[in-house]
Design a protein that fits this description.
Elements (H helix, E strand, L loop, with lengths): L2 H20 L23 H5 L26 E3 L20 E5 L2 E5 L4 E12 L2 E11 L4 E11 L5 E10 L5 E9 L5 E10 L3 E10 L14 E11 L4 E11 L2 E12 L8 E2 L3 E5 L3 E5 L2 E6 L2 E10 L3 E12 L2 E11 L5 E12 L4 E10 L4 H4 L7 E12 L2 E12 L11 E11 L7 E13 L6 E16 L5 E19 L5 E18 L2 E4 L3 E13 L41 E12 L4 E11 L19 E10 L2 E9 L6 E12 L2 E10 L10 E10 L5 E10 L4 E12 L3 E10 L9 E10 L8
Antiparallel strand pairs: 1-2, 2-4, 3-4, 4-5, 5-6, 6-7, 7-8, 8-9, 9-10, 10-11, 11-12, 12-13, 14-17, 15-16, 15-42, 16-18, 17-18, 18-19, 19-20, 20-21, 21-22, 22-23, 23-24, 24-25, 25-26, 26-27, 27-28, 28-29, 29-31, 30-31, 31-32, 32-33, 33-34, 34-35, 35-36, 36-37, 37-38, 38-39, 39-40, 40-41, ...
């Protein structure tokens, strides 16, 4: 069926349903409440008449009450007792413990012959966790019946409030009949009906009822709410936490659009009920019309599953399943999907995550991420990193020690990836210890690492053992300088096969290195308080010395292939992120920090720095900024004068040409009416890097147009190729009872079966009906 045919079919069905349901509907309730038209109270402002402030009961004077010695005194707590079968007052067999009743009123009287207590004026009765307010109340102690009339309000401990013109209840408020009932639920949604019957204190059955969380138009309260449900019978069962409807109509702006002989949804106290979630509809030029209808099912108190069938016009039926389980000491989350596409190929994915706290020392977990092919996730709208990483691990924490053992699998989804060369990492063992301060004022630390990398048929295999002890000592001098001294050694041993060398040869065998180092860092913070702001200026100088070199060609580079020189690693002992490559020789790192902090708000920071090497190190690739003895200049600025503006800038400046090798500028500015976020990135390619040079602009604009309307636009543009990469826009309407979201997106890239495409989706969520049972 074509997209136009599907949409036409939906319109015809909606029209037919409207025509069928128009003939028989519950009475109209869009008028002001009255004895004849009680449903109107559903639509009134909750503060009038639903929520009237409870008046403080006036103290009853002697002239206002009957001065009979047996009459109950206002404001006095009396004990309600059960009547035995022989009429004697006492505790009956199996009766529940006696519950105190508190009765307050402006006026009270007691008819001794009829055994009836009458009260009027700001009457308040409290029984356990329930409270009843009314203009007048009669309580027959013989029949244990309470009759309340006039502005009757019952307050429940669950947060619900019941209103009525007249109500007849048992003395414990558990059973009764109600006339002209209105109920405000805990989430401020409302129920109303001509009448109701309450049973067991947990079931309220309403006739000719209406339910809606929507407010009425303030200018025209007679206008129908945005949506409401009418039903011949409405049953609210607090035990099952369900609101059920028999012969129900869903009305939108007063017009019936959907009929159901039976319908139910959770009340506000019910958090997890089986049922359908909000559906989603949309389409794209690549996939055609798309419709999804999630179904949620709670397996037990600690686990649930969501099944989402998705009909895709061009590809068929895609099924997605999400399972969540919360354990006593952990959690387990799984997402999987599958489809037989138009080419009759099975495609799918699985993402699974587990976290388990074994005891106070050990915890374990796993991440499983696999897809049937490289483009499946992106084609069908799933989150898709360039490389899927799966791992299993266990780790231990005890005092100042840390230990972990893990294994990794990778699935490279990039165009030029070679699955044969994807490594298997098993095991990876890490140990870390930070010692207690010793008698010299320093502390000893130890880092150890054991790694095994295996490839299927080509490429090198690596077995590595690394031990890196160090000693660190901090102190200050008499002028306020902060000095840190550290020394240590890199001791790494390797067993490798088929390591490619720069001269074209390969090496297999055992190799390693022992590389000591020592470092001294000096900082001198200067602080000045000018009343409205505080300034801080801190020059930093660091000297690191170690033997030149340290990276024999027989040692493979598995974990240090990409290096980005910036202010965050200027003062690192080893600027490489991994273990396989180290930085040798003697170098001096220096820089200066400056900061300004306002007394009430606002701040600004600035840093600039550089490094100088006594000898050139060919470990660093051309274009890294560290290939010469004098490095490039790195700098960063952040300005945050007030909450509506945040600006950050980072750069790397070529020391010879005084031109930038890297720009990173991000700006966030605006107020809720209009907020803009922008990011500009530019960097040159380093020699041997898999990342090409890039110049990219990302822009995002969001606007809270009104209290209910909001919109956003996001775009990514490749300035190097002078073309768009993606464009997304959305429009959202939200009020107290509905959320309508529309989204348009366009992609501009091509990758195998992925082609540039336009997509449009729209979703409608009726609040409080996000989970509904059919």
């Amino acid at each position: 069926m074509s997209r136009l045919g599907v949409i036409s079919w939906l319109i015809i069905c909606a029209a037919a349903l409207a025509a069928v349901t128009t003939g028989a509907r519950p009475a109209d309730a869009n008028q002001t409440a009255s004895a004849d038209r009680p449903l109107g109270i559903l639509i009134e402002n909750p503060t009038n008449p639903f929520l009237r402030p409870a008046a403080t009961p006036a103290k009853t004077s002697a002239s206002q009450s009957t001065a009979h010695p047996d009459a109950p005194k206002p404001g006095v707590i009396r004990q309600r007792t059960a009547k035995s079968r022989n009429g004697e007052t006492g505790q009956s067999d199996g009766a529940k413990p006696e519950i105190p009743v508190r009765l307050l009123a402006d006026e009270m009287s007691f008819d001794r012959e009829k055994n009836v207590v009458s009260a009027s004026g700001n009457v308040e009765i409290s029984f356990g966790d329930r409270t009843l307010l009314a203009d007048t109340i009669e309580y027959n102690q013989s029949t244990d019946i309470v009759v309340a009339a006039g502005n009757v309000t019952v307050l429940e401990a669950t947060g619900e409030t019941l209103f009525a013109d007249r109500i007849v209840l048992t003395g414990d408020f558990r059973d009764g009949l109600v006339r002209n009932i209105g109920v405000i639920l805990a989430d401020k949604s409302r129920l109303a009906a001509h009448g109701a019957k309450r049973s067991g204190g947990v079931i309220t059955e309403l006739r000719q009822g209406v339910y809606s969380p929507c407010n009425l138009c303030a200018e025209n309260p007679d206008r129908a709410p945005m949506w409401q449900i009418r039903a011949v019978r409405v049953i609210h069962d607090q035990r099952s936490q369900l609101i059920e409807y028999r012969d129900a109509w869903l009305e939108v702006f007063g017009l019936p659009v959907l009929y159901a002989p039976y319908f139910a949804h959770p009340d506000p106290s019910g958090r997890r009920k089986a049922g359908f979630l909000a559906p989603g509809f949309g389409g794209s030029s690549d996939l055609g019309f798309v419709a999804r209808l999630p179904y949620f099912y709670p397996i037990d108190d600690h686990s649930d599953v969501t099944v989402t069938p998705t009909i895709i016009e061009q590809e068929g039926l895609l099924l997605k399943l999400q399972h969540r389980e919360r354990l006593k000491h952990g959690k387990l989350d799984t997402e999987l999907s599958a489809i037989n596409d138009s080419e009759d190929d099975f495609r799918g994915h699985i993402f699974s995550e587990g976290r388990f706290d074994i005891n106070n020392t050990w915890r374990a977990g796993f991440d499983l991420k696999r897809a049937t092919d490289d483009t499946y996730l992106r084609r069908f709208g799933f989150d898709s990193p360039a490389v899927l990483q799966s791992r299993a691990y266990a780790e231990a924490f005890r005092e100042r020690n840390y230990f972990s053992v893990s294994g990794y699998l990778f699935q490279d989804l990039r165009t030029e990836s070679d699955a044969v060369n994807s490594p298997t990492v098993l095991p990876l063992m890490e140990f870390s210890r930070v010692g207690e301060p010793d008698r010299f004022g320093g502390s000893f630390s130890l880092e150890a690492n054991l790694l095994a990398i295996t490839r299927d048929s080509s490429g090198n295999d690596t077995r590595r053992l690394s031990v890196r002890p160090s000693w660190n000592r901090r102190f200050t001098d008499t002028i306020g300088s902060l000095i840190n001294f550290s020394t240590g050694v890199y001791a790494d041993s390797y067993h490798v096969t088929d390591v490619a060398r720069a001269d074209g040869s390969e090496f297999s065998g055992v190799t390693g290195r022992v590389h000591p180092y020592a470092a001294l860092e000096w900082r001198y913070p200067l602080v000045r308080n000018s009343g409205h702001a505080t300034q801080a200026l801190e020059p930093v100088v660091q000297i690191i010395t170690s033997p030149n070199g340290g990276n024999p060609s027989a040692i493979p580079n598995e974990d240090s292939q990409e290096l980005e020189f910036d202010e965050t690693n200027l003062f690192q002992l080893n600027r490489f992120g991994g273990i396989d490559r180290i930085e040798g020789g003697t170098r001096v790192n220096y820089g200066v920090k400056w900061g300004l902090l306002g007394s009430t708000s606002g701040e600004a920071t600035f840093f600039v720095g550089q490094t100088y090497r006594l000898s050139k190190d060919d470990t660093f690739a051309d274009g890294s900024g560290l290939e010469d003895r004098l490095s490039d200049i790195v700098a960063s600025v952040r300005i945050h004068p007030f909450d509506q503006l945040d600006l950050a800038y980072r750069t790397q400046i070529d020391k010879d040409k005084a031109t930038a090798r890297r720009h990173e500028l991000s700006v966030a500015a605006g107020v809720p009416l209009l907020t803009a976020n922008g990011r500009y990135s530019f960097f040159e390619q380093q020699e041997g890097s898999e990342f090409a040079s890039r110049e990219e602009l990302t822009l995002g604009i969001t606007s809270k147009i009104t209290r209910n309307w909001g919109t956003n636009v996001y775009m990514i543009r490749d300035l190097t190729a002078n073309e768009m990469r993606s464009l997304t826009s959305g429009l959202t309407y939200e009020n107290e009872c509905v959320v309508v979201t529309s989204r348009f997106s366009r992609t501009f890239y091509s990758d195998r079966d992925l082609q540039p495409a336009d997509a449009f989706t729209i979703s409608v969520l009726l609040k409080t009906l996000g989970q509904a049972t059919f």
